[in-house]
Write a structure and sequence with these properties.
single chain, 20 strands, about 750 residues
């Protein structure tokens, strides 16, 4: 029977499967020849073609209907072909990824790849079976849809879905195109276009509109955006579903336009307290109001009509705001009402809730009675809890493992898309191991990642996702050596030393250490909370030595894209703290009225800003121009392009329309970036204005007026969001040579 099989058929749907390495064949559970299975295999093979640049002919993917508790894949070989078996597209794609890493020392990360296949591929000597311990493998944060993916097109989404499939993700948040659903809902409820426009936010601020924190910011939203992203969402969902993923869509959590009272005068709505500095409260519909269930049901119906459903829904009622009352009965009623409004349209509905509010709340609102009351309003099998910050603030330990609800342990890692090498890998390993082994773990059912941005530390995603298919017994340091070998396609003593140095420093901290150059200019104030976290909590000398070691690999790896990215990223990180050191010296010179020293440090500062721009301009990942052009490409008119550009500029600088320095939870600079273009057009201009004013004060023997500078700087920053000048979208310069030049220039400031 085996000899009759077409082992070279890439769309293999077989009823009997050989057990390779044995002398005979055995009957396997039948794999049904369905149109759905054919579609899965077509999509997996297309994925392999994209990942392997058209060299997928050596792989045969086979689906099996073998029933197991959780997903698995198997590797084997026949007639010089690699056979990958699994129950769905995710397990097949994960098997491909596993093969590439283990057998070919290759790597396909969330932002780049290093795949150098030998002419003759290594063959598994026997059947190798790999299982996952996790039912759910979750991905995305609501905020990722802004800080990372606000302007993505299908090409970018397709690569991301490929990566997710290759890493076992089966429960992705999928909330692109929700604005089209909301528009249809509110039109049916009788709202005018003007009322809807005043409510819906612009593309950069969707997450905080969805979560009920802001109204109207960055709008009005053009019809062309809604229509184009409806099309995009359908493509995303079709691909995710075809690979076996279960996308999580959105549900109604109570956030409504203020104008609801104009149409429904008897509606019971209330305004929340202030969210963050500069943002007053938004409006929520009382869950006891019959209109609540009507809107919730209508939303699910409209969404299902538009996008279909897989019965999983995200809704966040209290994101960084507290309810009006801590009455447990009210909180139970609230969650019951939210769930019933979903279930009224979908009896199979499962509510997926972020537990962020249980960790990050104003005051000590969410005590045990309040937490338990809210979650108890929904049956255990109808809710999944996302413990977002598992690596640092695991909520499961404080909230009795969520009182019987299935829950998913997540790594959050990045806030705001801030540019930094960071992430405590050992804490991530230990946190997950503790959760998995704890007798108090409750109904732990999955692993996930909920970072707000993922463009700067691929090692973090690679480690956490490696845990989907491993027991976690491997030492982190040993895992890192394999990562480095796969990243550069070879073992190298200096590369290994460099990464071990990073593991002791930047990847041994949760702080997102950046550079003071990206702060609003001024002298350093230890009482201030700086978004750039400019003071390193690691040994800078150890990190500098890591850069020195990585530079020694340039003759071996200088042409590798992955190496070039790592080198620029590490160089950027090593020189970032210099600005903090120098601002302290600058202030001393100012206080002494020492003009010569002041001018010397000023020149160093300006030179450093320009050097950052040169270095980062050599890599596509660090270009302001790309972010802006990606935003503008969605515009169908000059006005639409200008609106999207304002959104894109404002998010990464002022974050809103007000200057709120020193106020509670100030969002100015929350999502700052170290990008070429920003350094020369934004940071350099602001710092030059600062230097000029302080120099004038020194020359006139007067005090520098911070309040006056702040006022003028804020107005300039507001104006910058409205600018429309152009920036490069293609990298320029040699990343390796630029890194060497900056190392030679600045290493003297770091004492070995």
């Amino acid at each position: 029977m085996c000899k009759m099989m077409n082992w070279f058929n890439k769309f293999s749907l077989v009823g009997f499967v050989c057990v390779f390495g044995l002398s005979s064949c055995h009957s396997d559970k039948k794999t049904l020849e369905t149109a759905e299975n054919k579609n899965i295999l077509e999509n997996v093979n297309a994925l392999a073609e994209r990942v392997l640049d058209g060299k997928s002919e050596n792989f045969i993917f086979e689906l099996t209907d073998e029933a197991t508790k959780n997903d698995f894949f198997e590797l084997s070989s026949k007639n010089d072909k690699i056979i990958i078996r699994g129950q769905n597209g995710i397990s097949l794609a994960s098997g491909l990824n596993y093969y590439l890493k283990k057998y070919c020392h290759s790597q396909y990360t969330i932002i780049d790849k290093q795949i150098s296949l030998p002419e003759k591929l290594p063959l598994p000597e026997s059947v190798e079976r790999v299982n996952t311990e996790f039912k759910y493998r979750y991905f995305f944060n609501v905020c990722t849809f802004s800080y990372t993916m606000a302007w993505w097109d299908w090409k970018q989404w397709e690569r991301q879905i490929d990566w997710m499939a290759m890493n076992g993700i089966n429960l992705p948040l999928a909330i692109t195109g929700q604005e089209s659903v909301w528009y249809e809902v509110y039109k049916e409820l009788g709202f005018s276009d003007k009322q809807i426009d005043d409510f819906l936010v612009g593309p950069a601020y969707f997450p905080w509109g969805w979560m009920g924190n802001v109204d109207g910011l960055g709008g009005p939203l053009p019809e062309s955006w809604r229509e184009n992203h409806k099309i995009l969402q359908k493509k995303i969902l079709k691909r995710e579903r075809s690979l076996g993923m279960t996308p999580i869509l959105q549900a109604f959590s109570g956030h409504v336009p203020k104008s609801l009272k104009e149409i429904y005068p008897d509606a019971s709505i209330h305004q929340t307290g202030n969210w963050s500095a500069g943002f007053g409260g938004t409006y929520f519909l009382d869950p006891s109001d019959k209109l609540f269930e009507r809107i919730g049901k209508l939303y699910i119906e409209k969404q299902t009509e538009m996008y279909g459903t897989d019965h999983y829904y995200s809704a966040d009622c209290f994101n960084e705001v507290n309810p009006d009352t801590d009455d447990p009965e009210f909180l139970t009623s609230m969650s019951k009402t939210v769930y019933h409004s979903i279930a009224a349209a979908d009896s199979q509905a499962v509510w997926v809730m972020q537990a962020w509010f249980l960790y990050y709340s104003i005051g000590d609102f969410w005590k045990e009675p309040q937490s338990k009351a809210l979650l108890s309003g929904v049956p255990d099998d109808k809710m999944i809890i996302l413990d977002l910050y598992g690596e640092l603030h695991p909520t499961w330990k404080k909230k009795s493992s969520f009182y019987g609800k299935p829950w998913i342990w997540n790594v959050l890692h990045n806030f705001g898309g801030r540019t930094s090498m960071s992430g405590n890998i050992s804490d991530m390993a230990d946190g997950l191991n503790e959760a998995m082994s704890s007798p108090e773990k409750g109904n732990l059912s999955g692993i996930g990642m909920a970072m707000e941005y993922f463009g700067n530390n691929p090692v973090i995603q690679e480690y956490v996702m490696s845990r989907v298919w491993s027991s976690g017994k491997e030492d982190v340091s040993k895992w890192l050596s394999s990562y480095v070998e796969n990243r550069y396609d070879a073992k190298n003593e200096y590369a290994d030393k460099a990464w071990k140095g990073m593991l002791k420093t930047v990847y041994n901290t949760h702080a997102q250490t950046g550079t003071f150059l990206c702060e609003r200019p001024g002298f350093y104030d230890p009482k201030m909370s700086y978004r750039t976290s400019p003071v390193p909590d690691y040994d800078q000398k150890v990190l500098a030595q890591a850069l020195s070691d990585l530079l020694k690999c340039s003759d071996n790896f200088g042409d590798l894209d992955t190496y070039q990215f790592d080198l620029v990223n590490l160089t950027r990180q090593v020189i970032s703290p210099l600005a903090y050191s120098w601002i302290l010296e600058l202030e001393k010179a100012y206080k002494r009225k020492d003009l010569d020293t002041f001018l010397k440090i000023k020149d160093q500062y300006i030179s450093l800003i320009k050097d950052f721009n040169l270095l980062l301009g050599s890599r596509k990942e660090y270009l302001l121009g790309t972010w802006l052009e990606d935003a503008k490409r969605w515009g169908k008119s000059d006005n639409e392009k200008a609106l999207y550009e304002w959104n894109a500029r404002n998010l990464i600088t002022l974050w809103g329309e007000k200057c709120t320095e020193g106020q509670f939870d100030d969002l100015n600079n929350y999502a700052y970036k170290q990008w070429a273009g920003l350094f020369t057009d934004y940071h350099l201009v602001r710092w030059t204005r600062f230097f000029d004013q302080v120099e004038k004060a020194i020359r006139n023997n007067k005090e520098w007026d911070r309040s006056k500078f702040l006022k003028s700087s804020c107005q300039w920053e507001k104006n910058w969001s409205h600018k429309q000048d152009l920036f490069p979208t293609e990298p320029k310069g040699d990343p390796v040579e630029l890194s060497k030049d900056l190392w030679n220039k600045y290493s003297k400031y770091i004492t070995f």
